[in-house]
Design goal:
Elements lengths: L1 H55 L2 E3 L5 H13 L6 E5 L6 E4 L7 E5 L7 H16 L2 H22 L1
Parallel strand pairs: 2-4
Antiparallel strand pairs: 1-2, 3-4
Helix pairs in contact: 1-4, 2-3
Length: 160
């Protein structure tokens, strides 16, 4: 069902982009908007995890660098019947973690160093919530929406 919802969302956003393109630039504007939307969808689908991690300055870490967190994520992914995601460390000192990727097979979990000071229950809650967003593909829909919204905004600015 999530694949159907994602297909509908991508189609809906593409139609909006093409209509805005047509309004701004006629037939040529509609074609340009269609190309931008399709390229944007492709980039977001295949590379969004890498883009987000690079923007945030995340560095890949090994499981033995953070054994406690690795054990917690391993337990959570095992319970959810998900593959183990890659681990990244964020340079910023703020108690945060996030998960990114197009699906659970292409997932990454990024954490800050200071998150390790949280007790195990809070860590499980925080990391479990992020992993569930991956399993349900919640992140993908948001990033695709943001990308197409940005493209529509760019088209409007070009048309002015």
């Amino acid at each position: 069902m999530n694949a159907l919802k994602m297909t509908f969302l991508m189609t809906f956003l593409t139609v909006i982009a093409v209509r805005v393109g047509r309004t701004v630039g006629g037939t040529d504007g509609a074609l340009i908007a269609l190309m931008i939307a399709l390229v944007g969808h492709g980039i977001h689908y295949w590379f969004i995890d890498k883009i987000i991690l690079r923007i945030r300055g995340a560095k890949k870490i090994q499981p033995n660098d953070v054994p406690r967190l690795y054990r917690i994520v391993q337990d959570l992914t095992c319970r959810a019947q998900m593959p183990m995601p890659k681990f990244y460390l964020l340079p910023k000192q703020a108690g945060t973690a996030f998960a990114t990727g197009r699906d659970e097979k292409h997932a990454a979990v990024a954490i800050t160093q200071d998150i390790q000071s949280l007790d195990e229950t809070k860590l499980k809650d925080m990391l479990g919530r992020e992993l569930s967003r991956l399993k349900n593909r919640d992140r993908l829909g948001g990033t695709i929406t943001a990308g197409v919204t940005g493209a529509i905004s760019a088209l409007i600015n070009i048309g002015k």
